[in-house]
Amino acid sequence: MSITPTEAMVHVLVPLAGHAVIVGNGESHTLEPGMALLIAGTEKITSVWVAGSRALILHVPRASIQAVSSRLYGNSRRLAAIDCRFALVAQAVVPDDAAEMTEKRILETLVDALRASPQEAVLFPLARSVQRAVDHIRANPVLSWTIADLAAVAGVTAGTLRRNFSTCLGMSVTQLVLQARIEWVRGRLESVTESRSIGELSIAAGFGASGMLNRTYQRHFGETPSQTRTRAFRSRRD
Hints:
Elements: E1 2-3, E2 9-17, E3 20-24, E4 27-31, E5 34-39, E6 45-49, E7 54-61, H1 62-73, E8 83-88, H2 103-115, H3 120-123, H4 128-139, H5 147-154, H6 158-169, H7 173-189, H8 198-204, H9 210-221, H10 225-237
């Protein structure tokens, strides 16, 4: 069986029984249960399985792995164009309870296993242009950022920055700005030195009328700005 990854799609081979000899990129190795193979390089690989072998083959969008890894690392990451053997038992991605087999769970399991690989440092390099833009947004969340401003900071074109945000973070520049503003408001509401009203904070953060802030804030944090401020006040009083 031959598999060729693309810029958009990578593949993961997870043996269930038996073993295979994997040939590609000028080398060969054996793949057996307990190990898996990430196929994310630029060349086709060929797997030759012994009779009676069984395996799970996952076709995963590269952007999905990058978005999960960025969230778990806490900064912008990309997935390198390399193949990697890593430890992974089939039960980790095929649980007994099928209801638990969600896309999110599988992706997090894969990324956690890849992060435990000796090749972690080269597998998930920092997406530097994206991170430069992210750092500027988070440092100044209430500014009216334009994609041109951020592209200049990141050192790439506006189109490249849009694409890299989507593929590395799983969100748009606009969505990240909104998230940063909501988090800024939360920080102010929890601060002992903040005296501005919720309406004033809403305007300062670029939301205008507080009604828009309330709706966005509640979707993001599961509580209203007033509830956050009340909880923070009670916590300080106690």
